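Q: Hi! First time doing this. I have a protein sequence and I read that you can turn it into a structure. Is that right? Here it is:
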Amino acid sequence: MNVPAHIRSHRTPTPLGRFLFGSPYYPEHWEPEIREKDPALFRAAGWNAIRMAEFAWSLMEPREGVFDFFLFDETIARFGAEGIRTILCTPTAAPPRWLTLKHPEVLRVDENGKSLSHGSRQHAGLFSAVFRAHSKRITEAMATHFADNPHVIGWQTDNEIHCHFSEDHSPVAGAAFAVYLEERYGNIGNLNRAWGTAFWSQTYDAFGDIPTPRPAHPTHANPAHVLDYRRFLAQGAAAFQHDQVVILRRANPKWWITHNGVFPLVDYRGDFSRDLDFLGYDSYPFFAPDPATRRFTQAFNVDYARAFSGNLVIMEQQSGPGGQGNYLHDNPGPGEMRRMAWSNVARGCDGILLFRERSCRFGAEEYWCGVLDHDNVPRRRYHEAAQLGTELARIGPELLGTWVEVKIGVATGDFDAQWGHEPITHGLPAPRQVAEIIHTQFNTAGYAVGCVHPGDPLGGIEVYLVPHFTLFRQEWIPGLEAWVRAGGTLVIGARTATKDPHGNVVAETLPGILRPLTGASIAEYGRLNRPEARPLSLGFKHAPAEPVPSTLWYEWLVPEKGTEVLATWSGQHLSGCPGVTMRRLGAGCVIYAGTYFTAPVIAGLMAELRSNGLLPPPENQVPGVEQVVRTDGKKRFRFFINHRESEATIPLVRPGDELIRQAGIKGSLVLGTNEVAVVREHSA
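A: Yes, that's right. Below is the predicted 3D structure, encoded as structure tokens:
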């Protein structure tokens, strides 16, 4: 079923034949009398799917080699009788105690040399041959047992790989790292040259001599060493998952397979997601504490996940307050749970599982509240979920096969671009952080903004911004140049293409491999550590009237012949020097900004782009209302989501059929707080 990786992009729909709606379900947490009534209770709320077993290894294999699937057989059959299908999970995120007692060598080791311990989750090392053998065995047992069950439709591998802990400094991981490096470099001389080990007398004689890098042990590590270690961890996650995928596909080729991300040091653009039919994502918007900005963070996070390989399924969607340890989120107000779910659907989700069916009464997540409270009494959240289920049952099937329309693209989704920044940050924000600033600024201004990998086709996108990818691949340049020549506007941020694939500084005059494309070079650069004491600002050629402060970084640009200056510096020794340039290329242009993209800088750039006729009109000019379009190239569905604390009147771009209220609509639309409308637009 899986879509070939080479044709996946941010516009790739999932291959699902039904729009999924339901929740994770934990039969191991509930008494028999509750379990008996649950299928009818959740069917009445519109469930068509549940997800099970991600933490139930000790129940399914209570002793090594002894398997018991009765609880899950019974649960699958009961829900199946109500028309609710099951997504099973490989339970490898929480191995049983008998395994870690018998094989303590499977435990991960942290950067301080301390072994992780049983009593939580994700404590076993993905590089341990022993743990991988046991993981394959439980996966094989489950796959064989459930292979012919007609109610099992798909699988989730593991659960949130690298969620809490991503590194491993155990002897097993160290040995695997040596093998990885030998396969990558062939001989130790190649590695020494690539890493620049002549610095600080780091030259190695053999791959087995190379330790896993540990921060501050005693001081700064070699950035090339750190980058390759992070690639190694990502490859290990992909290989661990691949073991399971092979077993599952062999058992039943009709099953689809996903995983729930997005977490550190997993290359979701690479082999990890190529093994999957689509990527899953866990959406918990209330981790953003400010209700005024929470919707922008949610929108960015879902778009960021979609950039890896296309449309998603939300495997866990926040349905109530969540908390463990020393925090507890706000309780979503009336309509907020439904609104959050519709926001995710608008941005390319082809299924929603509300976390969780009910609030657990014990364990570390006893206050990760679900659709039902601890007392199992249906209240506001259950009735809201039932409303959502009714709506999605009717509208969801129409959305399958569509993708999200993006006109302003923000470069994200590349492992090296993100993690290559981390070894030496200079205190500057990472590409993902800057991408969120860009996304939020354009989203606030009403533009159809989305996250797009630089290797994706950019058809339909009018402006594409690259947020400081110090590692920039040569292979992306031909596609970007062709898109610019066809009329696109490419905006490149400072420090882009300053490193080689090993994380070393390039020898070429900056911006390195991008210099021919930008038509400008960098004469000088610097960090702005005390901008309040030594201010610098950019004066744009056309707008805005007031100079824009630069607070993090400056670059003094030298434009080549034919390259225009869009903004000049004011302050220090840079007054009058070029800070932003534009090279016209075919029907489009390349803009290079010699500063970091902060909110004021993006606002200034937006004004300058608008003055030059380089921005499309915004989709929406009603503050506090989110508008997103999903389309298959023919049908167009426009989502309207009111995030305001008051009613909003929204002019319509074109008339259509409002699918939630099941009524024709034209002229304008009125939405109350947290209200949603989905308009299937009529052809122009």
